């Protein structure tokens, strides 16, 4: 059986609103392709290399936990940056997405340093952006999820798509997340992957491509996943 390994960074600090469900979804969709997904929890980064890593995942956390996690991850930020540049697929959620940038400004104006892996920043406000969100994506089709964040993120990179209901990166651009090489960052908790099989498969397929193993069959029966997605689409249309 083919195998992939996912590094789950800082699960002890970053796991808001069931972010762990993303790992479960990846495992399940990998199993459908006869691939075993090994999960390595990384809470301390001292001496860690990414040599054995095929995909990485970073969940969301409060401003406090985010600050602690940034400190820990800064020890391997060069390796993480090199892996992202080399096309390693990764998924980062909310706080985990924000700290890939240069800085995070808290609602009281305090500037917290980011990992500076990509050139963008986030500014937080007391008023939070919460609720169901629907996005139309050229790469993934319809994406659904739930957002809850004070941070407003501004960046020049590709996004996951256009927000048709909800907020996404900030109050005014109607765009959500980041898509840079095979790195995805998003404000969607809930978690995102069980609700969006296209994104789950994308991460696995990119990891397989990079490792030189098969991702077959490419199509599986997604009837139930699509029906579940439709529930959210119809719910937001009804409330509009
Ligand atoms: N700092 C984040 C915010 O913008 C934390 C929230 C999160 O990860 N859900 O509120």
TrEMBL record:
Keyword Cell wall biogenesis/degradation: yes
Positions contributing to substrate binding: 128
Domain of life (superkingdom): Bacteria
Chemical reaction(s) catalysed: L-glutamine + H2O = L-glutamate + NH4(+); beta-D-GlcNAc-(1->4)-Mur2Ac(oyl-L-Ala-gamma-D-Glu-L-Lys-D-Ala-D-Ala)-di-trans,octa-cis-undecaprenyl diphosphate + L-glutamine + ATP + H2O = beta-D-GlcNAc-(1->4)-Mur2Ac(oyl-L-Ala-D-isoglutaminyl-L-Lys-D-Ala-D-Ala)-di-trans,octa-cis-undecaprenyl diphosphate + L-glutamate + ADP + phosphate + H(+)
Active site: 94 (nucleophile), 189
One family name in Pfam for this protein: GATase_3
The entry's keywords: Cell shape, Cell wall biogenesis/degradation, Glutamine amidotransferase, Hydrolase, Ligase, Peptidoglycan synthesis
Entries under Gene3D superfamilies matching the protein: 3.40.50.880
EC id: 6.3.5.13, 3.5.1.2
Domain CobB/CobQ-like glutamine amidotransferase: 5-196
Swiss-Prot/TrEMBL GO biological process terms: cell wall organization; cobalamin biosynthetic process; peptidoglycan biosynthetic process; regulation of cell shape
InterPro entries noted in UniProt: Class_I_gatase-like, CobQ_GATase1, GATase_3, Lipid_II_synth_GatD
A GO MF term: carbon-nitrogen ligase activity on lipid II
Pathway: Cell wall biogenesis; peptidoglycan biosynthesis
Quaternary context: Forms a heterodimer with MurT.
Known role: The lipid II isoglutaminyl synthase complex catalyzes the formation of alpha-D-isoglutamine in the cell wall lipid II stem peptide. The GatD subunit catalyzes the hydrolysis of glutamine to glutamate and ammonia. The resulting ammonia molecule is channeled to the active site of MurT.
Entry's family note: Belongs to the CobB/CobQ family. GatD subfamily.
Name used for this protein in its record: Lipid II isoglutaminyl synthase (glutamine-hydrolyzing) subunit GatD
Provenance organism: Staphylococcus shinii
Protein encoded by which gene: gatD
């Amino acid at each position: 059986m083919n195998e992939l390994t996912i590094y789950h960074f800082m699960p002890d600090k970053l796991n808001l609103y069931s972010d762990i469900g993303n790992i479960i979804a990846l495992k399940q969709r990998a199993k459908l392709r006869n691939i075993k997904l090994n999960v390595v929890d990384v809470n301390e980064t001292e001496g860690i290399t990414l040599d054995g890593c095929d995909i990485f995942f970073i969940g969301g956390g409060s401003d406090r936990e985010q600050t602690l996690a940034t400190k820990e991850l800064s020890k391997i930020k060069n390796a993480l940056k090199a892996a992202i540049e080399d096309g390693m697929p990764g998924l980062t959620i909310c706080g985990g997405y924000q700290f890939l940038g240069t800085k995070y400004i808290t609602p009281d104006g305090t500037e917290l340093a980011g990992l500076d892996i990509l050139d963008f920043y986030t500014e937080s406000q007391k008023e939070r952006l919460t609720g169901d969100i629907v996005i139309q994506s050229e790469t993934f089709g319809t994406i659904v999820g739930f957002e809850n964040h004070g941070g407003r993120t501004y960046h020049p990179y590709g996004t996951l798509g256009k927000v048709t209901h909800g907020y996404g990166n900030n109050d005014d651009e109607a765009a959500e997340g980041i898509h840079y090489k095979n790195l995805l960052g998003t404000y969607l908790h809930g978690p995102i992957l069980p609700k969006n099989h296209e994104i789950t498969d994308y991460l696995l397929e990119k990891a397989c491509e990079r490792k030189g193993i098969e991702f077959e069959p490419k199509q599986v029966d997604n009837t139930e996943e699509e029906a579940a997605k439709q529930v959210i689409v119809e719910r937001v249309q009804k409330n509009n």
